[in-house]
Specification:
binds zinc ion; Rossmann fold; single chain
Length: 316
C-alpha cells in the first residue's frame, strides 16, 4: 500500500518515511541492505562473487571501475541487475571519468520521482506551485526529465527552459517567466552562477540547485536562505540528499541510499568526523555497492529542527 503523501500542508512530502523514528529507519535500512546483498550475490559481476552479509568487507567501487564495467559489458554493465524492462537511459556525468550510460526501470523512475518530489517540497514547492527549470534535455542526467517526473509527483507546474548562462539566453526566457511567474527556479550549477549575478529578471522566492560530485566547491559553500541545494549522483540516485528549511546539512534519502564515511585506508569514520563519502543503492536495479563519490563529507544523525529523521550530510 502506498503511504499517504502530503502535497500541500507541510514541508514533508512523505512524512511517514521522512519522519520515521530512528529505530524504525535503522530496521528499514537493514532490511533493504540485506535484500540488496541477496540480489547482488545473484549477479554475474565478478566483484560481487563471494559477497558476505555486510558492506564493509567489500572493495570500494571507484568511478573508473564503473566506467570500465559498462564499457566491457555494454550497454549498462553487469551491476545492472534488472529483470524488468528499461524504459529510460541517459549519460551520467559527475564523479565519472567519462559520460557513462545508465538506465532506469519503471520502478526506478517511480522511486526517483518520489525522491525528487521530497527534495523539491523542502523548497516550499507544492501542489499548484509553479516552477521553471534550466536543466539539460534528455541526454544528460540529472536532466529536465528527472525534474519533470518529480514535479508530476508533486502536482506542481513544470516549465523547462534550458540552460540560462548568458544575457541572450535570459532575454529568451524572461518574457515567459514574467507570464508564468515561477516561485522556484530549479537550476544547474552554471545557470545558478549566472542567475545569481544577473539583474534582468524578477528573482524567484527560492532556487533549487542540482549539484553533482563535480561541484564539490558549491556543495561545501555556506548555506543561503533562498537556496535549496540537492546532491545528485545520477548513477546512484538523482536526488541523493537535499537541504531543508533549517539549511544545516543535506538530508540523505536513507530509505533509498546508504552512506558510509571512511578514511583514506577505508576504515570507518565515526559520525561527525570527515572522511570519504561512499554511497550504495539500496533499492535501485543498478546495484552499486560502496561507490566512491570522490567527495569529503561528514554524517550528522542528531535531530533536525525541520522534523526529518534522516541523517544529514555536510560536505567539506
Ligand atoms: Zn532538516
Amino acid at each position: 500500500m502506498l503511504a499517504p503523501r502530503n502535497k500541500d500542508e507541510r514541508a514533508l512530502f512523505d512524512p511517514q518515511v521522512q519522519a520515521l523514528p530512528a529505530d524504525a529507519l535503522a530496521a528499514l535500512r537493514a532490511e533493504r541492505l540485506s535484500a540488496l546483498l541477496t540480489r547482488a550475490r545473484a549477479a554475474t559481476a565478478s566483484r560481487y562473487r563471494g559477497l558476505g552479509d555486510a558492506l564493509d568487507g567489500l572493495p570500494i567501487l571507484t568511478a573508473a571501475h564503473l566506467a570500465d564495467e559498462v564499457d566491457a559489458h555494454p550497454p549498462f554493465g553487469r551491476m545492472q541487475l534488472a529483470a524488468a524492462p528499461f524504459i529510460r537511459a541517459a549519460l551520467a556525468a559527475g564523479a565519472l571519468p567519462r559520460p557513462t550510460p545508465i538506465a532506469w526501470t519503471r520502478a526506478d523512475l517511480d522511486a526517483e520521482a518520489r525522491l525528487g518530489a521530497r527534495a523539491l517540497r523542502r523548497s516550499g514547492l507544492g501542489a499548484r506551485g509553479r516552477s521553471s527549470d534550466t536543466l539539460d534535455g534528455g541526454l544528460v542526467a540529472p536532466g529536465t526529465l528527472a525534474v519533470s517526473d518529480a514535479l508530476d509527483a508533486l502536482d506542481a507546474l513544470a516549465l523547462p527552459v534550458g540552460t540560462v548562462t548568458n544575457d541572450a539566453a535570459l532575454q529568451r526566457v524572461v518574457e515567459v517567466w514574467q507570464i508564468v511567474r515561477p516561485e522556484v527556479l530549479i537550476v544547474d550549477a552554471p545557470s545558478f552562477a549566472y542567475l545569481m549575478r544577473a539583474t534582468g529578471y524578477d528573482r524567484p522566492r527560492a532556487f533549487a540547485a542540482l549539484l553533482t560530485p563535480a561541484h564539490a566547491i558549491e556543495l561545501a559553500e555556506p548555506p543561503q536562505l533562498d537556496l535549496y541545494r540537492i546532491f545528485s549522483v545520477p548513477q546512484i540516485c538523482s536526488f541523493v540528499a537535499g537541504e531543508c528549511a533549517a539549511h544545516d546539512g543535506y538530508h540523505l534519502a536513507e530509505d533509498a541510499v546508504a552512506a558510509e564515511i571512511v578514511s583514506d585506508d577505508a576504515a570507518p569514520v565515526p559520525d561527525g568526523a570527515r572522511g570519504r563519502l561512499l554511497l550504495t543503492t539500496l533499492t535501485r536495479s543498478l546495484a552499486l555497492l560502496r561507490f566512491d563519490t570522490g567527495l569529503w563529507a561528514e554524517l550528522d544523525r542528531t535531530p533536525c529542527s525541520c522534523g526529518e529523521t534522516h541523517a544529514r550530510l555536510r560536505f567539506a
